Amino acid sequence: MSTGEGTIRLRPPRNTLDRRAVGWWRTQWLLAAAVPVVPLAVLGALIEAARPWLLLPAAVLAAAGTAAAVLLPVWWFRTHRWEITEDAVYVRTGFFRQEWRIAPMSRIQTVDTVRGPLEQLFGLSTVTVTTASAKGAVRIEGLDHEVAADLARQLTRITRDTPGDAT
Amino acid sequence: MSTAAPAGDWRRLDPRTVLVSALVVAGVVAGAAVPVTLGLTRWSSLPAAVLQMSAGAALVIGAAAGVDRVRWHRTRYRVGEERVDLHTGLLVVKRRSLARERIRTVDLTAHPLLRVLGLVTVRIGTGEQGGDSTLELDPVTRAEGERLRRLLLERASTVPPGVHREGELAVLDPRWIRYAPVSFVAPMLGGAAAGAVLQISDWVGAQGEVIAWVADRFRDTPLLWTIVTLVLAALIAGVVGAFGLWTEMWWNYRLEREPGGTLRVRRGLFTSRSISVEEARLRGVDLVEPLGVRLLGAARLDAITTGLAKDHEARDADHNTLLPVAPRERADSVAADVLRETATPTAAALVRHPPAARGRRLRRSLVASVGPVLVLAVLGTLFTPVLLWIALGCAVVSVPLAVALALDAYRGLGHALSGRYLVTRSGTVRRSTAALERAGVIGWTVRQSVFQRRAGLLTVTATTAAGGGAYTVYDADAAEGLTFAAEAVPGLLEPFLERTAHPGR
What we know:
The complex is a heterodimer of chains A (167) and B (505).
Chain A: E1 7-10, E2 15-16, H1 20-46, H2 51-79, E3 81-84, E4 88-93, E5 97-104, E6 108-114, H3 117-122, E7 124-131, E8 138-144, H4 145-161
Antiparallel strand pairs in A: 2-3, 3-4, 4-5, 6-7, 7-8
Helix pairs in contact in A: 1-2
Chain B: E1 11-12, H1 17-40, H2 46-74, E2 76-79, E3 83-88, E4 94-99, E5 105-110, H3 112-117, E6 119-125, E7 134-141, H4 142-153, E8 167-171, H5 185-204, H6 207-217, H7 223-250, E9 254-258, E10 262-267, E11 272-278, E12 282-290, H8 291-295, E13 298-305, E14 321-327, H9 328-339, H10 355-382, H11 385-412, E15 414-418, E16 421-426, E17 430-437, E18 441-449, H12 450-455, E19 457-464, E20 470-477, H13 478-488, E21 497-500
Helix pairs in contact in B: 1-2, 5-6, 5-7, 10-11
């Protein structure tokens, strides 16, 4: 670590996501784990000769998927945070590989609100903010419907009021 | 001339397009004629087959010419005060219109046939993604192409005149051809040549004979020598191919700055190309040094611009190349001229990254090289000792190579702020030193994995509308990297930083 006046780091953004995001992430993990586990288990039940070869991987995958579904969303909920100021959008994501994204208001091109089928079920929305860079999009996943709509409205207002050519 | 203006300032393409289409199709037909005629002789006598073939060829060529005549008849374009319009289409008339202020590139290309006739293909682009952003005029006369290029790109100059070199910035030095064979093209072309021989012989149905002939040549030679000779032959073919390709691509190369703030690259032996880059769109330069080229002390210079044409023509990666592989000092001086700086940011002294970054690179490349060796060794102990020997051989070759590449990758890492530019360098097989205008940064992405957190490193990416969209500083010291990003674009990152009085967390 550097010496002298101390260290410098990115502070966490102010707002957390909606609590329901934990459930949403869990469901995603369980569904993802079910895709290989269910066919393996069904085949294992049907084909007697290959039973151990099919049920063992199924059990391992199921255990791994369940563990991920239980633990990861809790950690994610702690690390996924977002904030908007008058000048920029600031988002932190990831647990094992943390990522902070900053997009200035003057460079924002579009603000999209998307609700996937699973998100609908949990009453959540994803707000995507794009800039002119192909790699600079900022996504805030797992927001409450209302909060997301408000956020999109607010972003649209600020970007309209902020001068800039977006490139 | 082609300006049979029907209404207002509407113009037509050059009518000789019909001739060009007919000749191109005739060429294709001629290529197909021999096998088809031979095929026809199975059912009829040779003269009859030739007659049938000629009739078919005439029909095809006539049809192509006819279609192109209709296309010519239905295509017209107009450069108005505010917009450029193009009406075209065979069955359905497509009307397309571009706002002149949004036009960023006007590129001229001419394949040999067009050049003989004094024609060019003009591509007018706004530089935005999506198929409808480019208007293509195929073909017009060279004079008309030049007129359009000048008319559409000439704007009030936004940069102070006279400060920097106008006119010619670089011309081709034929000695640069010595860098052609060390590029990755050579081995690829060699492999392609070998593949082509086999493929063509397969079409003719003589693949077995070719292989037998080659095997016959080497009947008395040991296997090792056979392999060495064949690889050498392929390599020589590749080198010759690389020379040829280089000559075709870069002959007549010139880089010029034109009044009105446009950079123009002209090049090509048979197919001539003219690519214009508006300086207002230039966000920096990327000095690229592929491994072989770097060992010879040379580099290539690419432009980082917003909105170079992204259509099919742009897929050959050289669309944004400002200077072909040339000696490093030459590349640096051209970079300075292009950016209107006295000293190029690509040669700035860079901040080295902490030793932890070296450790990460060493570990990563060792895992990548030792992994396959371990797999081979395990399989070897289980099944056959031959694999053990192969594993040993792999280890002897790949581990030192991996270490060398990792150390070289670490040596290459660096970043700095240099005047109006931020500079980042990384890579070993393809080392890139990118100088990106600080005003062109439109966001930051900071990444830190668990391992990086422990080592006190992080990766900072500047996103931009230009070039690759993102330029990354890999594995910088955590505090230093954040300070760098905060200083590069004042005010953007600063509000989200927190400084702690005591070191550590």
